[in-house]
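Students often ask what a 'structure token' actually looks like in practice. Rather than answer in the abstract, let us consider unspecific monooxygenase, a protein of 457 residues. Its sequence is given first.
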Amino acid sequence: MGIACDFLLQNRAVFELTHEIYNKYPDAPAVGTFAFATPALVLRDLKNIEEVMTGDFNTFNDRGFNINPKVDRLADNVLLMNGIRWKLTRQKMTPLFTSSKLRNMYYIMDKSGKDFVEYLRTEPKEQAFDILTTFCSAAIGASVFGIHTQSIMDSPFLKMARKALEPSPTLTLRFTLNDMFPKLLEIFKLKIFGDFEEFFIGAIKNVLRVREQQATRTHDFADLCMGLQQKGTMRDPETGYEMEPTDELMAAQAFFFFIAGVEPSATAMFFALFEMAKHPDIQSRVHEEIDQVFDECDGKLTFEAVTNMKYLDMVLDESMRMHPAIGNLLRRCMRDGAVLPVGNIKVDKGTLIHLPIYAIHHDPRHYPEPEKFIPERFSQENKKNINNYAFLPFGEGHRICIGMRFARLQVKTGLVHALRHFTVETRDAGTNIKFGKLPAQMRPTNIDLQFVLRASS
Ligand code: HEM
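Now compare that with the structural description of the same chain:
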């Protein structure tokens, strides 16, 4: 019964299962398996991976997840949509993440970073991963719904965002049913995210109605949604397919910025800090870079200053290589007769394709001594030699993370503010890391960090 069955019956994350399969067949370009009764492939060869992620759009664009947008309104989002509906929504959402939009939005991220430092000063009692999840929920909340004078950590959206992110057995069951019996969801009109509909659709409607009355631009996501609504019907020029930018459609995208954005951002921050705690020499170099930038900006961090922090970028990249937030991705083949070039592998319609990111990032063919933390792998000079498809923390190709640049900026801003005032330490440097039983994410469960105020703070 393959990966899906092992996932249900064993206490392991999917990325651990695909990593095991990947290592068992070191000479194969791909390994055949099943997801219950559906044929599945675990890809090992980078050319085949490129074909799936970036090749013919109509063959492999599907995430392998069934949704019923008429019933499950929050599932109608750019992460879970497929086909033409996804293509049009993605086209309309992409301009929200340009450099100039991010620069305009930077003031929100900077305030989030400062509020985070104040929060850390209160010595919160939760585990570091939870502290970082709280920060990322609050910071994404601020970028979606805007900021006010109070701390982002007091946002009314925080409670709901945290609830939406909690691992819940009912949610796992609904996801599994979706995989095994998609028709069942349709017949019984079951919703995957029904619990959050009222709150999120209500919240976005309120924010949009208030904004319509305001003269000043706020440059947050709600502001950008309003711009889309003012332009009216969305239309795909190639096919003529049309969609209305309704409040519900905007709410589904906003909801998914939380679902898709918070946990990966928290994971990226957590592991970057964890590796710095394990390697104090590397942390010192990052501290030096941050202190220098703060001095140059006279204490006021700018968008350009954060964007240009080269050593922090190297540390973040190496950390996302060793600990990608999403350890395994899925695609579904949408037509019969598809062929993967290496090994001439014929792929039938409906076949699920696993892209084992964690396994690729730990393959010594791509990274010598893969278990060693070496930020220099990502220096300007060295990173030119890394194949695009061997470094996939944000995915690649048609469905690459839409929030990638936003996420990098937000993660770096949070790290820079925190490390300006704190040093991170860990008592778990030698611990064998354990992960939550999750379909894509890599959530560590048995390691922690301590934030210690720096002498200069
Ligand atoms: C460090 C933080 C993040 C990481 C590591 C990450 C990683 C990923 C990955 C691996 C994918 C799948 C790409 C693929 O299938 O090829 C993805 C998709 C996506 N991410 Fe992110 N992400 C992060 C932050 C964010 C943020 C902050 C947002 C929202 C503002 C976001 C929104 C999305 C969306 C909407 C998709 C679906 C794109 C599509 O299917 O067209 N992500 N992300």
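One point worth highlighting: The longest strand covers residues 30-35. Ask yourself how you might have guessed this from the sequence alone, and why that guess would often be unreliable.
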